[in-house]
Hints:
Layout: E1 2-6, E2 9-14, H1 25-39, E3 46-51, E4 55-57, H2 62-69, H3 77-90, E5 95-99, E6 102-104, H4 106-109, E7 116-120, E8 124-126, H5 129-132, H6 140-148, H7 150-159, E9 163-164, H8 165-170, E10 176-178, H9 183-195, H10 199-232, H11 240-243
Parallel strand pairs: 2-3, 3-5, 4-6, 5-7, 6-8, 7-10
Antiparallel strand pairs: 1-2, 8-9
Helix pairs in contact: 1-3, 6-7, 6-10
Amino acid sequence: MTVEDRGAVRIVAFDRPEARNAFDAAMYTAVREALASARVDPGVRAVVLTGAGSAFSAGQDLHEMAALAEGSGRPGLATGFPALLDELTTTDLPIVAAVNGVAVGLGFTMLPHLDVVLVAEGACARVPFAELGVPPEAASSLLLARRMGWSRAAHALLGSAWVTAPELVECGLALRVCPAETVVDEAVAVATGMASASRSALGTIKRLMRAAEADEVRAARRREDDAFAALFSDPARNPGGSLAGALGGGAG
Length: 252
């Protein structure tokens, strides 16, 4: 992960290009800490999330997820995902995404929790949970249907279908499509516009916007967590043996 400040905007880039920026235990911790430090830094008033190289994020590192399912995962992996999601869902800083390439698994399911999403031409998103035999995550069982509409969400979640950049805009998950070479700069410009307001105003508005569905999001996350726990505790259904080979071990 890399961090760069441009004025009052902090740019956090997922930086495991060899794994299409898939999240391992270390990256969960690093991104959460970067967001937490931005939240308490008085000089930061907005954050941009993007990916290094040609991918936004390929989601969970499947090698680590398979190891977790088999009881040999690295310390921190099981707690890294919920801790990062807690930070994303409670920070009062505006977060803008520059989706610069493929967004798979968490790379997709984090988007409904962000404030503005810009997507590069040619980028696309996918949640292959049904294909991998695992439940949804990050309250996506609630938020994708709410943001995209039932049929589109069902196509994505049940059909593991790719969603193109124009479709992300059409269904309301993204604001606009940008040229790949300018998507980060355009995201910084959007974040800079937000950062011109006071932190107290930004925080108050964001908390009020979130309040209406905060309880539902927490409940959806609990249901998904319970479904994961039930799946991985059942030897007959535990998908750990098949995860490492899926998608080359890159995405969750």
